Amino acid sequence: MPPAPPSPQPVSHKQAATLCRQGRTCALKSGSNESGGSVTSTYTSYRLISQDIGKSLERVSKQPDVARETEYYREKIGSVKSIDDFMADTRLYNYALKAHGLEDMAYAKAFIRKVLTEGASDKNAFANKLSDNRYAELAKSLDFAGLGAAATATEAAKSGVIGNYARQTLEQEAGDDNNGVRLALYFERKAPTIKSGLDFLADDALAQVFRTTFNLPDAFAAADVDKQAALIEKSINIKDLQDPEKVGKLLERFTIMWEMQNPSTTYDPLAVFGSSSGYGISPDLLISINSLKLGGK
């Protein structure tokens, strides 16, 4: 993340809103935190990264450890001709898994081998039976099942994986400072792929963004799945997730609610942003939430 700008002078809420929308630090009433340093809100941190995502990714790609592993992957992946070759090279294997957000599964080599062996073109393939679509994405990027020895010659296997690695690293580093920023960046990336309320429920991170945005209790996750999905689709027009501007409005609401639940500053996010996001909690939504029988009964 870029270094924080100098601590701002006290400003009005109206001025603060303008600064926030320009991607600058949201001012606290005192203009600083208790230690006298500048504090950046969840929304502002997210916007600083998102408003010039290309520059943010370039910065991450130039980090010595990222550049080193990327160069190794770029040089070596073309010589891999089989799943055995791929899994025998720990650096390539770990790089590809991290690029797909699966680095925590690196130990499960038999599981990953099955994913790659069956591929993702057949609806009955192992990866397609898993609720987590990251495995299918890995199988598509490294399509040994469909392309054999040519699997690593595709753009998906080369520049696609490299781009994914930079994005994953960016999101992880953002999460080290503020997990709300990581969730917002992740949602922004995944939004165009969401086709239904069930897609939210199949992804813990997307589900958390929804619950936080609409201030729902964790117990909501225990309600009947079909009812949860219906409520999600009632609350969010799924087609709007294809529109970056509307996704931005939704994430503005999310970051406000995240800040309220996990404050990184002492400023009042609702006073700064007001209710302009268009994603407030309507009376109809509250009635629908209250009508759900939590616990799945």
From TrEMBL:
<dbReference type="Pfam" id="PF06748">
    <property type="entry name" value="DUF1217"/>
</dbReference>
<dbReference type="InterPro" id="IPR010626">
    <property type="entry name" value="DUF1217"/>
</dbReference>
<dbReference type="InterPro" id="IPR023157">
    <property type="entry name" value="AGR-C-984p-like_sf"/>
</dbReference>
<protein>
    <recommendedName>
        <fullName>X-Ray Crystal Structure Of Protein</fullName>
    </recommendedName>
</protein>
